[in-house]
Every structure is written in C-alpha cells, then in structure tokens.
Amino acid sequence: MSIRSIDSRSHRRQHQALLLLLALLALWVTAACGGGDDDGGATTGTGVKVVATTTQIGALTREVAGGEVELTVLLSAGADAHDYEPSPKAVAQIKDARVVLVNGIGLDAWLDNVISGAGAERVVVVTDGIAIRGADAGQGGGVGDPHVWHDPENVKVMVDNIAAALSEADPEKAATFQGNGDAYKAKLDAVDAQVRALIDSIPAENRKIVTNHDSFGYFFDRYGIEYAGAIIPGTSKDAQPSAKELANLTDLIKREGVKAIFAEEEVDPKVARQLAADTGVAIVTGLYADSLGAPGSGAETVDGMLLSNATKIAEALR
Ligand SMILES: [Zn+2]
After folding, report:
1. Residue 75: phi, psi to the nearest 5?
2. Distance, CA 118 to ligand 1 centroid (Å)?
3. Which of 19-33, 82-96, 210-224, 238-252 shows the lowest per-residue confidence on average (mean pLDDT)?
C-alpha cells in the first residue's frame, strides 16, 4: 500500500467525520429553530408589529395583511395550541406588539398571564361574533368549543375582525386590508361550495365517524356529518381514555355502524389505531385539526386545510 493511498484514506475518514459533525450540527440547529415551544414566533412582512397566536390566525392575518404588517406567528405547524409555553423571546415579541390577535374560547388562555404581566397595546379576540358550540352545555370548562376554524362562515368572521384590528392599528392601509379580506372571504365561499360537494358525494348512511380528539364539531355541524364519539373525551388533548371508555367506544362503533376513525395530524394515533384494529373499521390519518399544515403541505392556509380534510373524509367514507 502506498503512502499516498493511506493518506487519502485517512483524509476520507476525516472528511466523513466532518460530514457527520455537520449533519449533527444541522440536526441540532433544526431542532433548536423548529421546536416551536422553545422559540419565538416566525416573523414576516413590514409595518406595525402584530402577533398572532395560532397557525390559523397567522395564516388569515397573512391573507389580510399581504405583507403590510410585521407579523409574528407564535405557534408553528403541528404545535399543541392547547398547551403552549411561550419562550422568553415569544414573551418579548408579545410585549413589543401593537396588536395581539388571539383565538380566545380558552384555546390560548396561556397568553393571559403574559398579557396581564406587562401587556401589548391591544389584544383582539378574533372569534368575537361567532356562535360558539357547547358554550351553554358547559363543555371544556364552560367556555365552549374553540375549534371554530372548521366552518368557513366562522372563518369569514375572523377575517373581518382581523381586517378591522389591522385597520385600526394602521388606518392608512385600511383600504388594502379591507380589499384583501374581501377577496379571501370570496375564496372561502368557493371552498365552502367545494367542501359541500365533496361531503354530499358520501352516501348519507356513511356520514358517521369517530375522531381521536373532539375538534371537528363545527365542520360536522355545517356539512351534516354525524359525530358518534371522541376517543379523547372533551376538547382537551390531555385526557387519555380509560379501558372502560375504550370498551364503550368499541361498542358504539359497532352498534352505530361507524365507517371510519379519524386520527388528527397532531395527536398520537396509537389509541385510534388500536380501536380501528379492534373494530375492523378504517382509520384515516393526516387530518388537520388544531394546527394548519407545514409550508408546502397544501394545508398551510385555512382554505387549503378545509379542502384537504374534506377530501380525505370523502375518500374514506364514499
Ligand atoms: Zn383541539
């Protein structure tokens, strides 16, 4: 073996070690930046500083603002909106904002402490004016079902509230915000019609489902799908079903002739898979419930999310 080949081999080994190190470093950086919870929110655009809590409010604000505000969205795709711990950077972003756009209805209650501490100038609950499901029944601690974005009519109310809040913060751009908002509402009407056509393509007797987290109520109400039960009772993700609850659910699925179990993108589908195996019904994964999809998924917009869910539901139940 020549000296040169030994050299080149050791060089190659060094090179491989360096590549490995770089790969690990890349992983570490990705983890540090993509973690959501430990991180401040992602910021885009220029103008008055606006913070949105959830991915849905972030996406709607992007539509209304069209880059004409400096928008920070706290939650990243897939993060748990029910149980979010704002990082020091996120707290600073909230305090620095002119407007903070929140979902309310108990979903982003984690923000309350941050705001009461040393608040942003103005907090706007973008779901104001929406008829809340279960508010009377005392569901989820008496505040009702926060997952309003699964009904396009509710989303249009959110768009109007966002446009009004941005217009008040920056009156010179009010016409732009209003125009963008109106255009997006027209798009939502078109998507609403598409979703309805998809759901109407399902035989009526098949429109019966179980999900792993009780968050599609607004969708089911609007499009006439019968909701037979949730694997996780209530609207919080913290709860795990007991053996008895699972047995009851298995009975219910068989008795009611439920066609499919829907597992959300953000929830561990382990229990749903077990239930599907026990009952022999189909399991549908990849529905976007609490979070929009990652960029490039096609579900990173509210309209895209609605259409993606409707397509998967129609394919499973037809
Ligand atoms: Zn939820």
Report:
1. -85, 140
2. 28
3. 19-33
| Reported pTM | 0.81
CATH number of 82's domain: 3.40.50.1980
Same domain, yes or no: 173 and 72: yes
Separation of 235 CA from ligand 1 center, angstroms?
Answer: 6
pLDDT above 70 covers a percentage of the chain that reads 80
CA of 145 to the centre of ligand 1 (A): 9
Distance 257 CA to ligand 1 centre (A): 25
Residue 106 lies in domain: 42-194
Tell whether 188 and 234 lie within a shared domain: no
Q: Is the pLDDT of residue 25 over 60?
A: no
Q: Measure 148 CA to ligand 1 centroid, in angstroms.
A: 10
Rounded to the nearest angstrom, the distance between the alpha carbon of 248 and the centre of ligand 1 is 22
pLDDT in tens, 51-66: 999 999 999 999 999 9
Tell which of 142, 167, 194 closes a domain: 194
Contacts of 271 by beta carbon, 8 Å cutoff, 6+ apart: 212, 231, 232, 240, 241, 246
Under 8 Å between Cβ of 149 and 56: yes
Residue 239 lies in a domain: yes
Q: Which helix (H) or strand (E) holds 284?
A: strand 282-287
Q: Are residues 71 and 186 in the same domain?
A: yes
Looking at the structure, do residues 183 and 228 belong to the same domain, yes or no? Answer: no
